[in-house]
Predict the structure of Sigma-70 family RNA polymerase sigma factor.
Amino acid sequence: MESVRKRLDWYKATILPHQAALRERVRRILPRRDDLDDLVSEAMTRAFATVEFDHIVHGRAYLFQIARNMIIDEVRRDKIVSLSLVADLDLIAIDSGAEARLQARDELRRLEAIIETLPIQCRRAFILRRVHDKSVQEIADEMGLSVSTVDKHIGRAALKIMQAIGQYEDLGFGWSIQKRRGAASDRSGGSASLS
């Protein structure tokens, strides 16, 4: 009975105060979600059922991570995923500044648009490798191609993507990777380079 009381006290203090924040975050990130209340309830239930609950002190982060993992599991089952959804899922778990989140989302959407312009075989090979993390051999087997052909498709896709990013940067817009490199170089006393 004492362990049940201890769990309830932990839940009320550590998890329950973040229920509304989780609901609002998921609603903003995935506005077309019909089963929002079910998802939030399931995340709350899973948090309550945590075996070693007394080790969890950051309830908000833990609850948001549970919801994020649940959505990722759904996406894996559906086997249909857009890059913008992947970026949106990261926003559930990360609680950084709004400007950085919006910039990252915009960059991912630009990247998705670039990928959509690739030839079909290049695009498919690239997505299987970079998004689904399949080996080149697995991709070759799935696509009915040789390993060297798959390598060429992935290389061609990467080159076209980097060229498109370069054109975007030439227009005066920066990508966050460029800014991260610049920040790292500034800390070390050097200058940023994109070569």
About this structure: The first helix runs from residue 2 to 15. The radius of gyration is 21 Å.
